[in-house]
Structures
1.
Amino acid sequence: MNELIFDPLEKNEIRSKGGGRKTSIKTDRRLESNLRILVEASTRGDPESPLLWTCKSTYNLCDELTAMGHSISQKSIYTMLRNMGYSLQGNRKTEEGGNHPDRDAQFRYIHDKVKRFQRSKSPVISVDTKKKENIGNFKNAWKEYHSKGNSPKVNVYDFIDKEKGKVAPYGIYDLSRNNGWVSVGVSSDTSEFAINSILSWWQEMGCHSYLNAKRIHINADGGGSNGWRNRLWKIELQRFANISGLITHVSHFPPGTSKWNKIEHRMFSFITHNWRGRPLIDRSTVVNLIANTKTKFGLTIKARLDETIYEKGRKISDEELSRIRLRKDKFHGEWNYEVRPE
């Protein structure tokens, strides 16, 4: 009879490597996806950093996952969050900007509304303007590999080149399809520019991905060209709704919380990493670098130069504002509302 042969055990070990019962992290296929869903609404962090953090404790997450039918310990959740790039930070770092009493409630409201739209296969986009960039042979932060002594030579001073000027990239990120659009503007960052960028995304990408869509949900910051106090933004939203035929829902993030906007973490940060260390010598370089931004998670971006000159300081009268087909949500109607096509 053949004798069974076992690998010798290492010193102080009672079983061979790979032996024993597998952990729920490896056997429960739904565990990681459900954990991501639970922490998604409370994800925070610097969009330029790969490290994210959550204000939910591992004990609370353990209770919620157990209620969902998972068998897991608090220590295992801690391990999973670390592997997913999360860390738990103290309360002192959770206060970002203004501390509105309904700030967290607004985040939950946006999160729930996004999920409702996604379940109905309706488009959900996150929009924002990336910071303006000087065009010319200027130093760009970060470093790239070059052969010794062959690093790019750039200008000593960052004085604006009057001929090349600056560019203002306005981005649209599709939360469901993990793709985006960037309009690279050469003029002022106005609400007209913002809506033209969203309209370009819809006509070039969105309408082909959402053939039967009747509504859209736009997530935006509370200020700037897409701010909730901006009258021109609402006028331009009416124009977008009329052209697209979509009931246009908008939710704004509370003041001082722009880093929560998904476009910051999921698109702009990767654009910044893609062009790091490269002088943005002309407009076509900017467009090409943005369009060539990709990630291992499948992010793709289209980009186009917008050379339209937009008028700054355009005034909107009360009469013009009253003609907008705007309906406010019951919860914080100043932050959450919809504009219907005429």
Note: The chain has two domains: 24-94, 103-339.
2.
Amino acid sequence: MLSPSLSFNWAFNRHANVYLRYARASRPGGIALTGETGPRLFDLDELGTIDLGIRYQAAETLSLSGSLFSTTWYQIQSDYLLANGLVSTRNAGKGIISGAEASSEWEPLTGLKLSAGASYVDALLVKAEDGLHLEDSRLPVTPNVTARLTAQYRFALGDWQSVIVAQANYVGSARLSFDQDLDRKMGHYAVASSALRLSRGRTTIGAGIDNIFNVRGDTFAFGNPFSIRTVRQFTPLRPRTLTLSIARRW
């Protein structure tokens, strides 16, 4: 089973370069239980993706990158729930995933670094296998939008080398599965965190707080397949957490 790939890179000046990549891969098929007529085969699934991007570096203070991508996914292997509560696998059909992503890093002042990134993904099942009827054609477990923002500041505090970091992340909405019994909404939350670290010699003292606003987002809407039809299941974000640490290198 071959997984070919091809890439091309063009540095059209000392600050910027453009790249083009193509790759193809497949995943073996297998035997799945049906819970009715005995085992049956599901086919391998295969995808090919193309990625066009640009990177720009201005001295050491600013870097930018962006890309456009498109993936075609044939005979997608997808899980579904049997009547007895077990999970089986079938081929759902053909999907097309297209989108864009961008990121940047900027150092406006000595010691201060800002970074940001975002992506948009349009992931759809464009052709379903026979007998599979969908009201929502979005591919599972694929957030439509993600974004991040980070600020980091390094400074001296007496004999201590210090760094303050603040970060915010957003994960867009997503669905769990094509199967109506398994499908649940998840995602669509933003989380912020911050940390302070002081280092001197071999010793580092740190303090941090995660999930500052105690957001209660659902990261993965699944747990027990035997009860998912009757109760809501979810994997919550870690609640607001304060961490204090002391470390020493030997």
Note: The chain has two domains: 1-93+119-139, 143-250.
3.
Amino acid sequence: MPVANAVKDALGSQSMIRKMFEEGTLLKKEHGADKVFDFSLGNPDLDPPPAFFETLSKLSNDRTKGVHGYMPNGGFPEVREILASRVQKDQGVKIDGSHIIMSVGAAGGLNVVFKSILNEGDEVIVSKPYFMEYRPYTKNHGGNIVEVNSLPDFNLDINAIKARLSHKTAAVLINSPHNPTGKIYPRETINSLAAILKEHGQKSGRLPYLVCDEPYRELAYDGIEVPPILSAYSEAIVVYSYSKSLSLPGERIGFIAVGPDINDKKNLLDAFTYATRILGYVNAPAFMQRIVGELISGYGEVKVDLEVYKGRRDAFCKILDEAGIMYNKPEGAFYLFCQAPKGDDLAWVEHLKKYLILAVPGSGFGMPGYFRLAYCVDEKIIQSSRDSFLQAVKSF
């Protein structure tokens, strides 16, 4: 029997990030890993903080009967209460553990949200460029992505979003700090977005959700604020992951949070819990739930060393400046989104491979003419890539 048509079509346009990563694996085999400058995949290379390993060791010795068994599909109640106290601080709202649903990372969380809120043909508005997996996440549950342009500095274009709101709009999906640009949407932008969504809801009778994907919340540089979402708009949903802040991408642990005033709150949270179960996750990983709960209750604020990423950003910017490559300086996350020389991102990324540099074309993020560099790699690799970048620009 053939593969399902929808999956077959998706395989033909599968993630450019993964494609470049796989090509990098082949180049490393051919030339040696130390000779290849792989900036394709946003895979954190920093070790988790020491407190993680201390907690891991402590909890791994727990022999309490049933400690690795099932719990409520929404997660351990005691962990959800602990996380609610943390979300209160970040988001400026008063909530308890019932407002938190543990998720299998942010990807799992977004799929749970879309399963819960989308009807067939509903639309989710995203601002270009955007993380390419948002499209299949939405399509998984009968929805369609609606793309709008961003402003030249990659801030949200509120008027462009307003123009695309319709009776089909179920949600606006944002990501801040942003992948692939590193942009942090300022408080005034979030407030303006909330205002147009409220206005649209009053006119249309359908109040869209504002879904914020926040795996990079702690990765903000130079004292720039990542503004709260839940206190800015009643119909907001925050999806969070510990993949970046604790360098745990493979452990797949995160959560979904809603504010106290969201409409039909009980039914929405029940839907998240139900979706978690029937999508096959059943529950977020039990051991990791207990670890993040213990970290927050026992250590308070725990995260990777942000100064390491900041140093890499600055080192990379210096090389790009020397090479004459234009970019907007990232305010957070660990990506640089740069203008491709001559505006041809596909040809440029292909050209970079001749110099053993791996980048991702902006076309994969819905924005041709740009390319993305992930600087979650050792700074020695960034510094060693200087001559290759200079030669690549000169010969293009």
Note: The domain at 63-299 is CATH 3.40.640.10 (Aspartate Aminotransferase; domain 2).
4.
Amino acid sequence: MSIRTNYRHTIAACFIGYVTQAVVNNFAPLLFLTFHAEFGVSLERIALLVSANFGFQLLVDLLSSRYVDKMGYRFSICLAHGACAAGLVGLAFLPSLLPDSFLGLLISVLVYALGGGLLEVLVSPIVEACPTKNKASVMSLLHSFYCWGYVAVVLVSTAFFALFGIRSWRLLAALWALIPLFNMLYFMRVPIATLQPEGEKGLGIGALARMAGFWVVMLMMMCAGACEQGISQWASTFAELGLGVSKTVGDLAGPLSFAFLMGCARALYAGFGERVRLENVMLISGVLCLASYLLASLSHSPALGLMGCGLCGLSVGVLWPGTFSIAARTIPRGGTALFALLALAGDLGCGGGPALVGFVSDAMGGRLKAGILAAVAFPVLLLVALALKRRLVPEAERAGS
């Protein structure tokens, strides 16, 4: 079948879309210490880069709930990939071209954050709208590609730095930009279906806000993002500064193990999710996440600290796609607005988690373990949200059906 009519190409493009998002979210954190050494950027300002990335994605999520349907999915998804490519290229050149290097970093982050925010809003509903069977499995597999993209970012970047030196990071940033550029051209050709049947509209923000269950899944999504990124964004720096290992060992044993185990959790759920109750899996994941944060922050052994990072990846794997599945099942008429607001809540957590780690660490004299210990608040909040869900979601199911 033609690329213009075969929805397998659409799903493949969406998989690459999540690889793109993994690149823009996880490449720069591998360079935090490089930015600190080369440009003199403090850990507190680096934390602001993380907050700016996810904070601007949050704003994009909020605005896209109103404008994406008007602009159309195809135009919006192509714009997203174009912004990701431009931001990565900007990361390579702007810090050296502008008088304030931090401003160059910030502008680049904001540009690719525009793309990342749109990707988070668009990719899941585009897959959901495809005429395929076993949508829950496809959705979980889709989110696993973020993890495999993360693994690729760490492996390829580590190998590149080992071969060409850390000073060649600008070239690698430009090379990573080729992925969103290719996928933008791919999305120009693949078929894209609409989420709602012709003539029907999804629920508006006002209608969603009146559902108690909507606020529960929003809290779950915020906690899922914070649990995931609280360690993920700082894993490389934590391994080097907090545990005293080399950059190569730190990148491989920290971010790589985190991403690999997170991907394994999502792939396993894609294969066996229909046999287990999702809420029980998320409860176990929340408890395991709490334990992993405590292990990483309280252990005096580098090996156990790195084990905590990896265990965190395994524990958070199901949280993000699982919350999407619960929300879609709970509020079936949520439409684009629901996906956009869930992405907003997730990005709020993705920005808030690393920011809390950075600010507490800076206040404690650069002790990253203290920052990670403070972030145990997020898995605790997740467990509270799951308890609330048991009481309030049935009400939302009746209202949304």
Note: The chain has 18 helices and no strands.
